[in-house]
Backbone:
């Protein structure tokens, strides 16, 4: 069973959120991790610019197999950690489907 | 309102507030505005040598206003700060004073690009409180009062070096011939400098001919977002020419909406290119290069189509203007005026 799904096969955002936190800690030391929470805003609270966000996305894809489509990244309004976790969960769903 | 270039936004603010004068033709110079590529192939929207001479020259020709440079790049920063103080405390009411500062040093202000440093032009005035200054930032649609010491600290940043002033008196309506000459100078119909630069930088990091290590590419492309949004200036130009033709420019104008969609794709594809370049750097997967090159080719095709559509509108406008002003020669094809810089 995927660690990103509960026993009923439903997606859960908590493990993905924790994976995001760990990736930030490992790859983006300039991020303001003290402000990290589900509702933290990626730019205003965590201090991620567009390049840092790209770095985060690529590291999540290469190291954790979590990805979102380019269209989602470019078209969606990624404002909070929860927005990102939700899109990563949807990407996971597409892979598993 | 589209805000895409801080210098242009500052000088256009007063034009927008002047009845009978239109700021949008000034944006002709923005979509392919100057940028720099350093010797080690790093793209930058600003360089220490940027003095905006073309914009200043055309501003004078279009609106009759002289933009004076008060910042002395050869002088120490404290000398320039003294000049700024003197300008601000002796400012006539009609004078607009611009200064470059480093937005990264103003954490109270939104910095949507989170760039460090982030050179950026704003306008300043004094207030009744000697410890506070009023700041107007037309590019980010912000105005407010900030501590003087904090503003000066942001000006003292080594990344910030520039300042101008101009007086908003006797602003004049732009003559058709001047608008046409400005368009002729700005329209680079046979090349797209930004896409050309991205392609050149990419290739400088790849293959046997590489002059830079691949892992340097992320830094080289770092400022793409700041320059990509300059392409929204095309929207101003299309809107202006269509309105000159008597068309309503809103969501019911399908031609304009379609053009805006193309411009949006042009901007967002820059993000796509940057994202794939990041993947290329972090994964080392060279198979991604072909896709990036393909996106760059698509960008060229897209921007040439936009330029052709805009040029067609311009030529129609120019002929109509000539017909209006010289009925006797209405049937003759009028040559475009030459740019006189």
Residues:
């Amino acid at each position: 069973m995927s660690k990103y799904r509960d026993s009923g096969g439903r997606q859960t955002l908590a493990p993905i959120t924790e994976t995001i936190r760990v990736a930030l800690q490992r790859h983006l030391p300039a991020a303001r991790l003290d402000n990290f929470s589900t509702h933290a805003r990626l730019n205003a609270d965590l201090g991620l610019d567009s390049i840092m966000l790209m770095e985060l996305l690529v590291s999540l894809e290469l190291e954790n197999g979590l990805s979102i489509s380019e269209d989602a990244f470019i078209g969606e309004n990624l404002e909070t950690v929860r927005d990102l976790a939700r899109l990563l969960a949807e990407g996971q769903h597409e892979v598993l489907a | 309102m589209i805000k895409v270039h801080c210098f242009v936004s500052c000088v256009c603010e007063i034009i927008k507030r002047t009845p009978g004068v239109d700021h949008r033709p000034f944006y002709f110079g923005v979509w392919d505005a100057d940028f720099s590529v350093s010797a080690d192939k790093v793209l930058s929207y600003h360089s220490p040598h940027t003095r905006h001479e073309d914009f200043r020259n055309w501003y004078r020709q279009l609106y009759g206003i002289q933009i004076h440079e008060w910042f002395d790049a050869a002088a120490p920063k404290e000398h320039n700060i003294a000049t700024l103080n003197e300008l601000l405390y002796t400012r006539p009411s009609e004078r607009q004073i611009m200064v470059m500062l480093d937005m990264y040093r103003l954490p109270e202000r939104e910095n949507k690009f989170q760039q460090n440093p982030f050179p950026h032009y704003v306008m300043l005035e004094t207030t009744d409180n000697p410890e506070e200054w009023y700041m107007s930032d037309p590019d980010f649609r912000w105005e407010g009062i900030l501590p003087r010491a904090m503003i000066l600290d942001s000006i003292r940043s080594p990344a910030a070096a520039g300042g101008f002033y101009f007086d908003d008196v006797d602003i004049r309506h732009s003559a058709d011939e001047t608008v046409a000459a400005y368009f002729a100078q700005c329209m680079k119909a046979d090349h797209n400098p930004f896409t050309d630069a991205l392609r050149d930088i990419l290739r400088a990091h790849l293959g046997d001919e590489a002059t830079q290590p691949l892992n340097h590419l992320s830094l080289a492309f770092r400022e793409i977002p700041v320059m990509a949004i300059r392409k929204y200036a095309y929207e101003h130009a299309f809107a202006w020419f269509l309105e000159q033709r008597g068309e309503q420019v809103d969501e019911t104008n399908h031609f304009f909406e379609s053009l805006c969609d193309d411009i949006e794709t042009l901007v967002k594809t820059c993000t796509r290119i940057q994202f794939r370049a990041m993947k290329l750097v972090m994964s080392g997967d060279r198979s991604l290069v072909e896709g990036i090159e393909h996106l760059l080719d698509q960008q060229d095709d897209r921007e040439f189509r936009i330029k052709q559509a805009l040029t067609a509108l311009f030529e129609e406008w120019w002929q109509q203007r000539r017909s209006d002003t010289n009925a006797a020669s209405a049937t003759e094809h009028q040559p475009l005026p030459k740019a006189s810089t």
About this structure: The mean pLDDT of chain A is 85. The radius of gyration of chain A is 13 Å. The CA atoms of residues 57 and 77 of chain A lie 15 Å apart. Chain A is about 55% helix and 0% strand.
